[in-house]
Amino acid sequence: RPAFVRTPLHELPTAVAERIAAGEVIERPVSVVKELLENALDAGAQDIRIEIRGGGLRLIRVSDDGYGIPASELDAVCVRHTTSKIVSFEDLEHLATLGFRGEALASIATVAEVTIQSRVRGSGDEDPAYWITWRGGQLQERGRRARPEGTTVTVTDLFYNVPARLSYTRAARTENGHIVQLVRRYALGYAGVRFSLALDEHMAVQTSGSGNLATALTEIYHLALNEMVQEIQASDGQHYVLRGYLGNRVLAQSSRQYINLFVNGRWVQSRILQDALERGYRSLLPKGKHPLLVLSLEVPAHEVDVNVHPAKTEVHLLQETVIAEALTRAIKGVLERSPALPEAVQFP
Ligand code: ADP
Ligand code: MG
């Protein structure tokens, strides 16, 4: 480590502070895809198309048919802490959106080139679509160009000015793998939305947006899963409503990445909840195997704190113990009734 020479206490120049903050939100290409997907979902999109080239370093493009961005607001969407989702800190107690920090687009625009093209839903013929381009945290260009209602965000040259991040980024195949996992997850969490993911022109994920979770499971894993998954529903009428599907023993996987848990529509990583649901499977799965499942947990908005980590994948639940125990119990209950099947199926 180089020798440290203390400087007098001083405020970091904005550009430096922003590039540091960007690193917390945008760790690798999949983080960009996640933020753009969440924005599309927050905009009420019914159809989301994702295009990836070169593992996301060459191009990430997310197109939606959501409510769009008014032309008067387009210049500001890449400004840090600019959001249309909350007004006060108290709004976090009844959050209805996935985003709330107003940080994602600003972060992406700091470490890449971003073009945002949008047309507001219900805008007339005289109100065309507009676009702006940001690069390295600077607004570069803007213009008008026709397009259907909705928003397209195109990100190129990711990490061009962050050499350390660029060298940390793995081969396109690895980054693509993370992106496929993410899109599958959201397509399961939002079975009513049509998703498509093209990796270098190859269609990797495609769902119909039928609203039926069992259909989405089949579309995503390309298997007739119906007899291998068990529906689960539970609620205490107060702290939680639990819904979803549990893959049985036959679908046991060697990694935890097939555990899809959503809390109020947000895909979350929670050690405590994950352990609770794996406990529900205990004795049913061989050692070292993990379940395939998709669970959506609805809890009162004021009983969940999502403001824990920049990536917003960690949450704190007020009734964590109650919910964890309920999860274990509900899963056990369902699995005890499920039929046994012969062969094991492994996904790539
Ligand atoms: P946040 O989602 O926390 O508000 P972002 O930086 O992700 O912050 O986005 C900033 C703002 O840009 C959003 O609040 C929203 O108003 C607008 N926006 C971004 N993406 C879209 C989209 N796909 N459709 C409509 N509005 C969008
Ligand atoms: Mg956002």
Automatic annotation (TrEMBL):
Gene Ontology biological process terms, A to Z: mismatch repair
Alphabetized UniProt keyword annotations: DNA damage, DNA repair
Segments forming domain DNA mismatch repair protein S5: 217-336
Gene Ontology terms: cellular component: mismatch repair complex
GO molecular function, one term: ATP-dependent DNA damage sensor activity
Family note: Belongs to the DNA mismatch repair MutL/HexB family.
Protein name, as recorded: DNA mismatch repair protein MutL
Annotated organism of origin: Dictyobacter vulcani
Organism lineage: Bacteria, Bacillati, Chloroflexota, Ktedonobacteria, Ktedonobacterales
